[in-house]
UniProtKB/TrEMBL annotation:
Protein name: Diaminopimelate epimerase
Primary gene name: dapF
InterPro entries: DAP_epimerase_AS, DAP_epimerase_DapF
Isomerase keyword on record: yes
The family this protein is said to belong to: Belongs to the diaminopimelate epimerase family.
Top-level taxonomy: Bacteria, Bacillati, Actinomycetota, Actinomycetes, Micrococcales
Organism per entry: Arthrobacter cupressi
């Protein structure tokens, strides 16, 4: 087992890089929770020009070492490890679907957990405990129940928001809560998503208080009747920008398509620029006996590299950054 909490060389600090369908993360192990990373440092690490480059930063910490982890342990005592997730701009996010798969793969890769084929590991997140099952080279996560974020706002067609992207008329969207917020815009079937300009953040109205991830999706009719229907999707992630894939976004999109398209299928393929994931819906009995519909997300996770963060980089908070550095961090 790697003693990954101790600096590898001097004050350098070991990190790993991994991705799930092209949604990429810098990961590091901090079992005892002694390496809190500031928002500025996170933004620096995730910066693609001046840092390592990633859509998010993931810290693996024992649940018992974080207040939110201790709370979670009272109803999920098996959740030994907590995924402390930060977006590329340094903000904290409640949940990351691709991140959970990569997080578990990371724990296995560095020997902090074991997960034989077909078995399940529970991990802590700010959106609750998530059960992850290993299936070949894939991981499937029980993401828990999805819900409409603003049912009281629904208009006749079922949508509850307007979304504008640069240079186009506002389109109608549906807000879905997957533990983190999403607004899904469904375009007509077989639409090309390529012309959408996602270089700038889409404007969502009413503006969600905590911000939102925005997905654009289109149902394709190329599906073979024996395989799940295919939805194509692009995403603009809150506090990041356009990414190659978003796991919670894929789940929110499948839920929205199911509501708005009239197709009640329980299984869907969501095809994103970084690759496909499988989303399925299953009714589960909760602790109080109530039956709720859970979403399951299945896809790959890969480790790419590991290395050491230079102490010079680590001291970034004390280093009086230049105006140019601050501009880069803000991006
Ligand atoms: N890429 C993630 C979502 C990461 C968090 C998101 N940007 C947010 O702020 O909610 C995924 O795979 O779910």
């Amino acid at each position: 087992m790697t003693d990954s909490s101790s600096p590898a060389a001097g004050r350098g600090f070991p990190f790993w890089k991994g991705h799930g369908t092209g949604n990429d993360f810098v990961l590091f192990a901090d079992p005892d929770g002694t390496r809190e990373i500031s928002p500025a440092m996170t933004a620096w690490i995730c910066n693609r020009h001046r840092g390592i480059g990633a859509d998010g930063l993931i810290r693996a910490v024992r649940s018992e070492r974080l207040p939110e982890g201790r709370e979670l342990l009272s109803f999920a005592p098996e959740a030994e490890w907590f995924m402390d997730y930060r977006n590329a701009d340094g903000s904290v996010a409640e949940m990351c679907g691709n991140g959970v798969r990569v997080f578990v793969h990371f724990l296995l890769s560095i020997g902090l957990a074991e997960l034989p084929e077909g078995s399940t590991l529970t991990v802590g997140t700010r959106a609750g405990a998530k059960k992850v099952t290993r299936i070949g080279r894939d991981y499937e996560i029980d993401m828990g129940p999805w819900r409409k974020a603003f049912p009281e706002r629904a208009s006749e067609d079922g949508t509850d928001a307007h979304v504008s992207v640069a240079g186009s008329e506002p389109r109608r969207g549906l807000s879905i809560d997957m533990g983190n917020p999403h607004t899904v815009v469904i375009l007509p079937a077989n639409s090309s998503l390529a012309p959408l300009d996602l270089a700038r953040e889409p404007v969502v109205s009413p503006q969600p208080r905590r911000g939102t991830n925005v997905e654009f999706a289109s149902l394709t009719d190329e599906s073979d009747p024996d395989t799940p229907r295919v939805i194509t999707m692009r995403v603009y992630e809150r506090s990041v920008g356009e990414t190659q894939a978003c796991g919670t976004g894929a789940c929110a999109t499948a839920a929205a398509v199911r509501i708005l398209s009239g197709f009640q299928d329980d299984q869907w393929t969501v095809q994103m620029p970084g690759g496909p994931v499988l989303v399925r819906f299953q009714r589960e009995r909760g602790m109080g006996g109530a039956v709720r519909e859970h979403v399951f997300l299945r896809g790959p996770a890969r480790m790419v590299a590991n290395g050491t963060i230079d102490p010079e980089m680590w001291d970034v908070d004390d280093a009086s950054p230049t105006a140019q550095d601050l501009l880069e961090v803000a991006r």
